[in-house]
Amino acid sequence: MEAAHAAESLSFIDLFLRADWVVKGVMLLLALGSLWSWAIIIEKGFKLAKLNKEAAGFEAELASGRALEDIAAKHGTQPTAPFPKLLVTVTAAWSEYKGKSISAPEGELLLSRVDRELNHVISTEADAMEDGLSLLAVVATAAPFIGLFGTVWGIMNAFSAIASQGDTNLATVAPAISEALFATAIGLGAAIPAYIFFNLYNAKVARFVGRLEGFADELMVSVTGRLGGKLAGR
């Protein structure tokens, strides 16, 4: 009977209810941070998977041998996916000079403009993909220390209870110490997934941005080649 009562008194819910307001506040803060980070983890996972799927489909279109203008026209003037955005940016800039003679200074201005616009698209898309990752970094870094604060506070309360009651029996102080250690456990439970997915998503974003930069370089080579042919044909 006593063992059952002890098990009940050390349940997670009972540990929270028995904790003082400071430790409860720490637990609630960590729980909210964990829920928020998991929301970002799930949302970012779906978003990155969608981006990679769209990129694979777009690369298949490029491999089909269709003209870049035809592919750009298919995606419209304001595509939402990153790769079509880069292509439309280039084809829109080039279309302004289609059928016109271009001087060398105009050609340099065109290349500079296209390069600047491509970099802007890549920077904007990178910022959108990285949105929310800073919160994962904060949770991963701060949660263990917040949990440790709750643990230290709880242990102080346990020692205070020992001093006031004059009873050092383990059964007397075990609930208070368990409450304190529970705060650390919640802190680690919030920090570990945030740390893992922060690093995982950072690597995935870096790889995707690298693919965007590679495609932008290919587009710049295409524009340079077309421009060179136009100037040579004058």
Task: Tell me what the structure shows.
The chain has 8 helices and no strands. With 234 residues, it is an all-alpha fold. Helix 5 packs antiparallel against helix 6. The termini are far apart.
How far apart the termini lie comes to 99 Å
| Number of strand elements | 0
Structural class: mainly alpha
Counted by DSSP, the helix tally is 8
Percent helix, as a range, is: over 70%
Main beta-sheet strand count, sense and barrel state: none
Unreliable stretches: 1-8
**Overall morphology:** rod-shaped
Q: For the residues shown, what is the average pLDDT?
A: 84
Which sequence of SSEs, written as H and E, runs from N to C? Answer: HHHHHHHH
Work out the strand percent.
under 5%
The gyration radius over C-alpha positions equals 29 Å
Strand-helix topology:
Blueprint: H1 2-9, H2 12-18, H3 21-63, H4 68-74, H5 82-95, H6 104-130, H7 133-165, H8 170-232
